[in-house]
């Protein structure tokens, strides 16, 4: 099965490996640019969950922004295996 956004997924994978820290889907979208990428953080999270290179887990509650308060968010990391 061919997944959409393969270029964006590869770019996000490289960015996460270089950053060496977990990030949210919104942070990944902002850092990797919007050209040919998912249109929202929710859509990006669905794309990343289907890719076996990414590891997803729920964070501790943290402050998200005015009006949102403390929320749990999904953080994404890459598996540490060499290709």
Describe this structure in words.
With 83 residues, the protein is of the alpha+beta class. It has a single domain (6-78), classed as Winged helix-like DNA-binding domain superfamily/Winged helix DNA-binding domain (Arc Repressor Mutant, subunit A). It is 39% helix and 20% strand. Helix 1 (6-19) packs across helix 2 (25-32) and helix 2 (25-32) packs across helix 3 (41-50).
The major β-sheet equals: 2 strands, antiparallel
Helix tally equals 3
Percentage of β-strand residues: 15-25%
Number of domains: 1
Give me the count of strands.
4
Distance between the termini: 21 Å
The assigned CATH architecture is: Orthogonal Bundle
Layout: helices, strands, pairs:
Layout: H1 6-19, H2 25-32, H3 41-50, E1 54-58, E2 62-65, E3 69-71, E4 74-78
Antiparallel strand pairs: 1-4, 2-3
Helix pairs in contact: 1-2, 2-3
What's the quick description here?
This protein is α+β, with helices and mostly antiparallel strands.
Task: Name the descriptors.
two-stranded antiparallel ribbon; two-stranded antiparallel sheet; 83 residues; 4 strands; alpha+beta; globular; Arc Repressor Mutant, subunit A; 3 helices
């Amino acid at each position: 099965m061919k997944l959409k956004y393969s270029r964006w997924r590869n770019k996000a994978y490289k960015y996460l490996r270089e950053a060496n820290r977990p990030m949210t889907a919104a942070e990944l979208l902002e850092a990797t640019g919007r050209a040919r990428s998912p249109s929202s953080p929710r859509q990006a999270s669905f794309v990343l969950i289907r890719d076996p290179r990414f590891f997803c887990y729920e964070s501790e509650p943290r402050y998200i922004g005015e009006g949102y308060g403390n929320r749990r968010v999904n953080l994404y990391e890459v598996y540490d295996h060499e290709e």
